[in-house]
Structure formats: structure tokens, C-alpha cells
Amino acid sequence: MYPTPGIINKEQFIVEFAPLVKRIAHHMMVKLPPSVEVDDLIQAGMIGLLDAINRYEGSYGRQFESYAAQRIRGSILDELRESDWLPRSLRKKMRQIEVTMRALEQRLGCPPSEQELATELNMTLDEYHETLQEVRGVQLIYYEDFQEEDEDHFLDRLCSDSENEPLGILLDKKLRQSLVAAIENLPPKEKIVMGMHYEQEMNLREIGEVLGVSESRVCQIHTQAIARLRLRLRSL
User: Fold this and answer.
1) What are the RNA polymerase sigma-70 domain coordinates in residue numbering (predicted)?
2) Residue 4 lies in a domain
3) Closest listed residue to residue 232, CA positions, set 139, 105, 135, 90
4) How far apart are CA 98 and CA 92, in angstroms?
5) Cα four-point dihedral sign 216, 218, 224, 227
6) How far apart are CA 139 and CA 160, in angstroms?
7) Residues 228 and 133 in one domain
8) Residue 21 pLDDT > 60, yes or no?
């Protein structure tokens, strides 16, 4: 990779890490609506990879792979946000589910079941499952989602050191602890799905095979878990 000392062969790096871009793009696709094309995510990811190659100043190896993965994900997220990838109507549906979740949890003193949520939303259970399937694109949690108008920024409330770099803020201990606590409070099946998908990096089909349910059912469980986590983190 080094034709002369200290000079990187960028083309070689692109070839070597292109599979990483594809893997990240396909992993993110399970959280997005069908209207999003995986090829668009891969293209955005390749831009992130090039940016990583141009910016990286450390020693190459696994450290670079971790750094590149962050830049690739960030580039894909930027592309999604700029492309207005989720219709306003679906965001409204997700918000209705979250508002209902909050109201029921306050009333019942525990996380509401799917049937309780469906009844409160004046839906059948099948209709509620279909709605979860539709809004699966509302999976990417933006920090703007955790604040109201005229309110301090979500990260400002969690991170007192305003001089932190963005990466340092994202890795802030309190934020990670809050997320871990929120996941621990999920209903058992939702917690299992989150662990399999994010810790073991299993895709939805593989999780469905383990749990004995369909891929679409795993998607619904995942969407519902994300809604609960968003509510927990907003209340910080």
C-alpha cells in the first residue's frame, strides 16, 4: 500500500475497504424504508471512505478500520438527512405511537403491551403491526429529536464540557449509561432483538430464525423498541 515511504496507495485502500462500505450500508438498510436504495447508501459510504483516507493520520490497521467505519456511517447519515428520506406522514405516525406510549406508561406504571397500544390508538393489533412496519424508517435518532423549542440542546444537558470534540460528546459516559439503562428497561423480547442486532450484528432474517418468527415481525419489534428508547432518552 506504500509505493514510497509515508505515501498511501489510495486505490489499494479503496479496494480493500470497499467491502466494509457495503457491509455498513446493508446493515443500515434494515432500519430504512423500502424507498431507499442500497446503492445510494454505498455511494455515500464510499465518499466517507475517501474522506477517511484523506484525513487519517494514525497508524494503519484495525485503528484505521474503526476510524473509517465512523466516517462511512457519518457520510451515509448525512446523505439520508439531505435527501429527506422519510415522508412527513410517517414521522407523524411515529410521533403518535410515541405520545401514546408515554401516556400509557404514565397511566399503567409500566411499558404498555402491543395490544394496549393498539387499543389506545383505535387500531386492531394487525393494523398496529402494519403501522410499525411502515414507520421502520424512523430508526435513526437525531439529537434534535430530544429537545423542544426554546430548550437547551440535548447534548448540552448531558455534557457540561463545551470544549469536547464531537466524538468525545458521542462517547460521553452519562449518555452511554442512559442508553444502557433504557435498553435494560425494554420488554424481554425487544431487549433480545436489540442485543442480537447491535451486539451480535445479526440481520433481521437471522434473528427471526432464532426467535421462530418472520423477518417482518422482527422489524416490528425493533421499531417498537426504538420508539421506547427515544422516549426514555427524551426524558433525560
Assistant:
1) 40-53, 203-229
2) no
3) 105
4) 10
5) negative
6) 27
7) yes
8) yes
